[in-house]
Amino acid sequence: MRFRQKIQAVPRQAELSDLLPVAGFRLGTVCAGIRYPDRRDLVVMELAPGSRSAAVFTQNAFCAAPVTVAREHLQSGPPRYLLVNTGNANAGTGAQGLLDAARCCELLAAGAGCESTDVLPFSTGVIGEALPVEPIAAGLPEALAGLADAGWQDAARGILTTDTVPKGASRRLDIDGHTVTVTGIAKGAGMIRPDMATMLAFIATDAAINNDLLQACLERAVAGSFNRITVDGDTSTNDACVLVATGYSDLPAITAANGNYERVCQAVAGICDELAQAIIHDGEGATKFVTVAVENGLSTDECLQVAYTIAHSPLVKTALFASDPNWGRILAAIGRAGIPDLDLAGVDVFLDDICIVRHGEVAADYTEAAGQQVMDRDEITIRTVLGRGTVSERVWTCDLSYDYVKINAEYRT
Amino acid sequence: MRFRQKIQAVPRQAELSDLLPVAGFRLGTVCAGIRYPDRRDLVVMELAPGSRSAAVFTQNAFCAAPVTVAREHLQSGPPRYLLVNTGNANAGTGAQGLLDAARCCELLAAGAGCESTDVLPFSTGVIGEALPVEPIAAGLPEALAGLADAGWQDAARGILTTDTVPKGASRRLDIDGHTVTVTGIAKGAGMIRPDMATMLAFIATDAAINNDLLQACLERAVAGSFNRITVDGDTSTNDACVLVATGYSDLPAITAANGNYERVCQAVAGICDELAQAIIHDGEGATKFVTVAVENGLSTDECLQVAYTIAHSPLVKTALFASDPNWGRILAAIGRAGIPDLDLAGVDVFLDDICIVRHGEVAADYTEAAGQQVMDRDEITIRTVLGRGTVSERVWTCDLSYDYVKINAEYRT
Asked: What is the CATH number of domain B289-409?
């Protein structure tokens, strides 16, 4: 029995020195001492006037106070500032939590000379403790003074909690001779099972895009990326993802779903994919990156139902940790996924390119050695062919290791 | 950070020397060497002629070969023998698995002088490996020769897999001067989230009860016991629960849902509760016994949805392991349970008698010290009051520890 060490995070995620600035978008990050001393924990992002924003939030009914306040402030018009703290989620904090989130917006607005409704607040960290407003108030002037186009790298660190590496990605597009840049950062390692939303992620482009198209672009990108990952099945109270379009590129404004729009959408989706994968690579205690694909289902829902049942099974996840080709556990998970009238004779299951189950039973040519060879890999695809339709889906997940238990048993101590 | 050791199993479960024989029901147990040498792994149970049986099985679509064969054989009339092996689940074994299960029934029938359809097969153990029929064939004569009324204690050991203690319970009733006995045994420690069925459990009474009433009695008992426990959310491929009524008591036959029937039902339900609780006490790596109660919901479904979301949350389970009153994770689980239009202002949450959340936010009088005091206990009730209806439910579960990962990562090695 060889247990594995933490997988290497995607190497290019480790440094982020190549994150491209986005004209019209500046970031300032400070150590405000919200929970720990000498840790970057407060980030201000400034959107140039005229920027448009799209956002999606957690569907958790116990959403955090900053999520409620951010949704309200979005009703008043396009935001000018995003305010992010780590160390405290300001969730489960009731009426006082709402006041605290609003107060932080007021403090930033006073320092920046705008309305408090121009500020969207975001918090991540421990749930159920009062937000320490004082250190945030004290840290804001330095964060504002430090606003810079090149602030992405520090900001990527300033939003982390149990993450072990910062996460960011950039794309530069040449569209008809005009340069468009898209850059994004994200955090997340546990309590990861975004639901119609995402973990904290902030993406900016200097393209000019109208509101409806921008929101559609974000929702498409999130659907295939952040909404297709799970570490532990636990949907956070604080998930949020914001896409900002500053309009500072000299590319003509995008006002229709044309070819230029598609190219920007693809860049945004590519960044979301990269950030979502980075979250799984950095999953709490993760030693493997696992793609769970489900093919030939009748509907998206049933494909996802099978995929998530596999991805959340503690037995499948511990077998992955042990590099044990115990495919019976995968079969048991498919069988309990609740798919009506599933005909087992139509079901095939593959580990990477190795067919382990054909027509519902162990494949005649399957050998334990072949299965072992796949399970020894760092990245594995579990592919289930349902054989009853034309729809396919895939989610990304990781294994369940001693370290997941350790990290989450020791989180607050 | 004090991590806990494995909880003590319910003391009376450890010995089982007090299991009462049931007239008309005999058990024989041998070491057949199915997977390990010198381990009781093959059990034959003999039902006296005229006995009636009720059974429920796993709802997992990939049900094991013995489950399919047992269901078929039940169509042919009341069974005379139950044949149970541990060490191999005969699941995911396709057509050969069905032949192997049928072959074991034939072998037992030949030795006992009955039809093979009079035998119901049951298997538990590793999924996806061919059932070793030879050692079973070789062990059957000794098992048959050893059949005895007093065989319950050995049989309780002969059906275990990763269990650390055998599980059994007895009740003796005096009904109008007639003595009725009910005894049951069960196995199960992981892959525990029975769905409309149960783990392997065998219960016998000497009362005479007609078929419909017997099945109803079993289904009622299972609904409140085995169908309300979860260790890891993984529904087994092999779950089965059988209730046998031999009719050897001198109590007049029960042919209507009268007072006598209710008393037997209560005894059966009591035994199922005790066995189900014993499974959770022996949950893989479990250090705590946790009752998750949900009250004042609109429906059974929504109460169970909230209860199982809490009971399956790896974050809640690791907090329980760490004795960490991190109630924010409970709140996050309630919030992501998918209850439509949940009004947080109506939600209260209690740890035993301590109110941690009132009207959706942390209770004014809650202190971390009070929460810690509850979390330090071996048995804890997490009680959520939804405040929107009159329905209540409860499930039993355990925590998620290093040892759960260890046991399931090392299972096949």
From this structure: 3.10.20.340
